[in-house]
């Protein structure tokens, strides 16, 4: 398959330079688009393309752009584009790969998105630990400025736009779009009440659009080749575009690949060398830590938004974590719950106090102290925690637990009947 998002690569394994991106067709459509397309045409083509946000929720991107005030609805003041490169979800590393490989795709996508929504300034909010990646992006931004692709009157058009990098203070909640805006403004990173939505009242109370790295990098291809071309890239009829899929955990060759959206888990697993050590697959968490477990019976489900929802999970970030027959899904989930509990921003009680209690309950099971009552408590706790919390953090934390109870109840019960983890011996053998 021809790669779109990763179409340019640096010669020595580093990020593609401006020349390398241009040689792969990058920035080709930009001058024409800025001179000949009206902003509303840009929004229309993104709407028609069927692009859905790659940050986890899958919200239709063109629709999101249309919420930003324009024409008579706009007071003429600043509007901002915010690229969310916070990427702290366990198991997720696709935005890092994109930035490390093809940073100009993101920059070009931001210029076009900024033009479509009438914005003159964009920011990239990048995960604290992505030091090298932030430096690579800074270099790419300088290259683009030097070539008059950023700054005043881009590529000879009447449009001006610039991009600045902001390094995150380093918490998972900073990836939630309104907590991100608070963090950016120097406030405590807690989510804001919605409405008002960032589209009308975002950064410094001005209209703002927050987009994931991968979403923005899809835009140049759509503008260059059109909505139908983008739809035609998908592996399933209801999807649109390509997707950066990642695989980690019990796979032979963990990596990130760009494939048509809707590629099956079976095909992705095969490409990553199958399950480590030739073992059987027990299950996967398909899209980062806050999605529900799937099992081998779902191997042929297209990895796309709607099919995965029908299968009882979510595409999330599209980066799966595989569990082999030797890996305890309870222990794996406990590990994720420790992360979610630690990363609670503390603003609301069900999440702040409930997530640590969930960790304690799972620890009882793993350490052989678990009872049937504990199983009931876990199920009740995680059923109630999401709907009673302020943002999607707690609901996300509940997802793997829901999958655990749906697909691996016998394993949970075995933790009680065997007074401990039935996988412990296997794990010892693996690590011996
Ligand atoms: C706790 C939490 C963490 C999040 N972290 C990220 C993140 O690191 N990157 C991201 O793009 N979206 C993240 N999101 C989703 C964002 O709030 C938002 O939906 C997304 O950036 C919108 O971009 P999109 O429309 O391009 O998908 C997170 C959401 C929650 C609740
Ligand atoms: S759900 Fe958790 S992360 Fe979200 S606001 Fe409440 S305490 Fe903070």
Throw out a few tags for this protein:
de novo design (two linked rop proteins), 18 helices, Ubiquitin-like (UB roll), Rossmann fold, 8 strands, binds iron/sulfur cluster, alpha/beta, 4-stranded mixed beta sheet, 4-stranded parallel beta sheet, 3 domains, 432 residues, binds flavin mononucleotide
Plain-language structure description:
Pfam families: Complex1_51K, NADH_4Fe-4S. Belongs to the complex I 51 kDa subunit family. InterPro entries: ComplexI_51kDa_subunit (IPR050837), NADH-UbQ_OxRdtase_51kDa_CS (IPR001949), Nuo51_FMN-bd (IPR011538), Nuo51_FMN-bd_sf (IPR037225), Nuop51_4Fe4S-bd (IPR019575), Nuop51_4Fe4S-bd_sf (IPR037207). This protein is an alpha/beta fold and 432 residues long. The protein folds into three domains: 18-232, NADH-ubiquinone oxidoreductase 51kDa subunit (Rossmann fold, 3-Layer(aba) Sandwich); 244-324, Ubiquitin-like (UB roll), CATH 3.10.20; 329-431, NADH-ubiquinone oxidoreductase 51kDa subunit, iron-sulphur binding domain (de novo design (two linked rop proteins)), CATH 1.20.1440.230. The chain is 44% helix and 11% strand. It has 18 helices and eight strands. It has helices at residues 18-23, 30-36, 39-49, 61-66, 94-101, 103-116, 131-146, 177-184, 213-225, 227-232, 265-271, 305-310, 329-343, 349-366, 372-385, 392-407, 409-417, 424-431, and strands spanning 80-85, 121-126, 162-167, 208-212, 242-249, 255-260, 281-285, 319-324. Helix 7 (131-146) links the parallel strand 2 (121-126) and strand 3 (162-167). Helix 6 (103-116) packs across helix 9, helix 13 packs antiparallel against helix 14 (349-366) and helix 14 (349-366) runs antiparallel to helix 15. The longest helix is centred in the last third of the chain and has 18 residues, at 349-366. The protein is globular. The model has no long low-confidence stretch (mean pLDDT 96). The protein binds flavin mononucleotide and iron/sulfur cluster.
């Amino acid at each position: 398959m021809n790669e779109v998002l990763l179409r340019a690569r640096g010669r020595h394994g580093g990020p593609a330079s401006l020349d390398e991106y241009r040689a792969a067709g990058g920035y080709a459509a930009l001058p024409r688009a800025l001179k000949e397309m009206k902003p509303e045409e840009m929004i229309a083509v993104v709407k028609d393309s069927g692009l859905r946000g790659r940050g986890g929720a899958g919200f239709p991107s063109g629709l999101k752009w249309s919420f930003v005030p324009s024409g008579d609805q706009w007071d003429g003041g600043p509007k901002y584009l915010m690229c969310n490169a916070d990427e702290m979800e366990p198991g997720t590393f696709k935005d890092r790969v994109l930035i490390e490989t093809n940073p100009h795709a993101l920059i070009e996508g931001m210029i076009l998105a900024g033009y479509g929504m009438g914005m003159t300034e964009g920011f990239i909010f990048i995960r604290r630990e992505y030091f090298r990646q932030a430096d690579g992006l800074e270099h790419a931004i300088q290259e683009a400025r030097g070539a008059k692709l950023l700054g005043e009157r881009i590529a000879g058009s009447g449009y001006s736009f610039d991009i600045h990098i902001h390094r995150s203070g380093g918490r998972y909640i900073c990836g939630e779009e309104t907590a991100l805006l608070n963090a950016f403004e120097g406030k405590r990173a807690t989510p804001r009440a919605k409405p008002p939505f960032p589209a009308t009242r975002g950064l410094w109370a001005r209209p703002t659009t927050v987009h994931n790295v991968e979403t923005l990098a899809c835009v140049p291809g759509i503008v260059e080749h059109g909505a139908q071309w983008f739809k035609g890239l998908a592996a399933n009829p209801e999807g649109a575009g390509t997707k950066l899929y990642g695989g980690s955990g019990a796979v032979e060759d963990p990596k990130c690949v760009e494939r048509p959206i809707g590629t099956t888990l079976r095909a992705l697993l095969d490409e990553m060398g199958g399950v480590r050590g030739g073992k059987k697959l027990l299950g996967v968490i398909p899209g980062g830590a806050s999605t529900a477990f799937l099992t081998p019976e779902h191997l042929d489900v297209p990895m796309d938004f709607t099919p995965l929802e029908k299968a009882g999970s979510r595409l999330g970030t599209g980066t799966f974590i595989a569990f082999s027959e030797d890996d305890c899904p309870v222990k794996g989930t406990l590990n994720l719950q420790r992360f979610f509990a630690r990363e609670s921003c503390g603003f609301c009680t069900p999440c702040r106090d409930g997530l640590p209690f969930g960790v304690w309950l799972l620890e009882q099971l793993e350490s052989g102290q678990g009872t049937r009552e504990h199983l009931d408590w876990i199920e009740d706790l995680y059923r109630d925690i999401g709907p009673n919390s302020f943002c999607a953090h707690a609901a996300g934390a509940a997802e793997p637990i829901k999958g655990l109870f749906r697909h691996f109840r016998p394993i949970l019960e075995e933790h009680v009947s065997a007074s401990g983890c039935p996988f412990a011996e296997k794990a010892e053998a693996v690590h011996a």
